[in-house]
Write a structure and sequence with these properties.
Pfam family, one: LytTR
Largest sheet: 5 strands, parallel
Order of helices and strands: EHEHEHEEHEEEEEHEEEEEH
Helix content: 25-40%
Protein name: Stage 0 sporulation protein A homolog
Radius of gyration: 19 Å
Number of domains: 2
Strand order of the largest sheet: 2-1-3-4-5
CATH class of the largest domain: Alpha Beta
Distance between the termini: 24 Å
GO molecular function: DNA binding; phosphorelay response regulator activity
Keywords: DNA-binding, Phosphoprotein
CATH superfamily of the largest domain: Response regulator
Shape: elongated
CATH architecture of the largest domain: 3-Layer(aba) Sandwich
Length: about 240
């Protein structure tokens, strides 16, 4: 039995969401209901999935998710929102997906199916690179960005730096379908690592800042928006 929490201050939306979950043909759920983020945070249960409203009084969905992540790194958080521009919430705790109100049965069920796929045991997502020291295999989530500097391409992770044997433009093309994007001629950034965008600066989750070229600003924001709306495991 899969345990799901619904947290929404709109009672009608909460009940409609519960109805759709109860009618889902692919699995049976134990459903807990909350109308405040504070009450969800006080729950003693662990959840596989949380459907979380963003715009709530007192503790909003973003802050609620941040606090949940401090004790549970694996729960799949699906934000439910009236906002279509998800880049507004790029600074938030990585969510599995974003769904627009009013909830569509088709979209909700599609996201549930994707959650179940991610819940299946799977090998880490390893990427392979040819470095100056040999072949490197690294989990894609550990990569922050790539940087072209002094005629060399550097791979930066949370803890290490490697020199790659490749062109940064070729790298951008090879990784474009894996959640990476080139916001500047000298950088390829992991969209998973993006915390926020302010003007022409991209802030990463480790506090570093990557430049965003004016020419690529709109295109990059669109790519990030698409990445978040597709739920590219921002579990975060």
């Amino acid at each position: 039995m899969i345990r799901i929490a619904i947290c929404d201050d709109e009672t009608a939306v909460l009940q409609q969401t519960k109805l759709l979950l109860n009618e889902y043909p692919g699995a049976a759920f134990t459903i807990d209901e909350f109308t405040r983020g504070e009450d969800l945070l006080l729950s003693e249960h662990n959840y596989e999935i949380i459907l979380l409203d963003i715009d709530m009084p007192e503790t909003n969905g973003i802050e609620t998710a941040r606090l949940i992540r401090q004790k549970d790194k694996s729960v799949k958080i699906i934000y439910v929102t009236n906002y279509s521009d998800y880049t507004t919430f790029a600074f938030a705790v990585h969510a599995f997906a974003y769904l627009l109100k009013p909830l569509s049965r088709e979209e909700l069920y599609k996201q549930l199916e994707e959650v179940f796929e991610y819940m299946q045991p799977a090998a880490d997502s390893l990427l392979e690179f040819n470095t100056s020291e040999g072949i490197l295999r690294v989990n894609s989530k550990d990569i922050l960005y790539f940087e072209y500097q002094c005629r060399k391409v550097y791979l930066r992770t949370h803890t290490d730096t490697y020199i790659l044997k490749c062109k940064i433009t070729d790298l951008a093309g090879e990784l474009s379908d894996k959640g990476f994007y080139m916001p500047h001629k000298s950088f390829v950034v992991n969209l998973y690592s993006v915390k926020n965008i302010k003007g022409y600066d991209i802030y990463l989750i480790n506090g570093l800042t990557i430049p965003l070229s004016q020419k690529k600003s709109m295109e990059f924001r669109r790519a990030l928006n698409h990445y978040l709306s597709e739920g590219m495991n921002l579990t975060l």
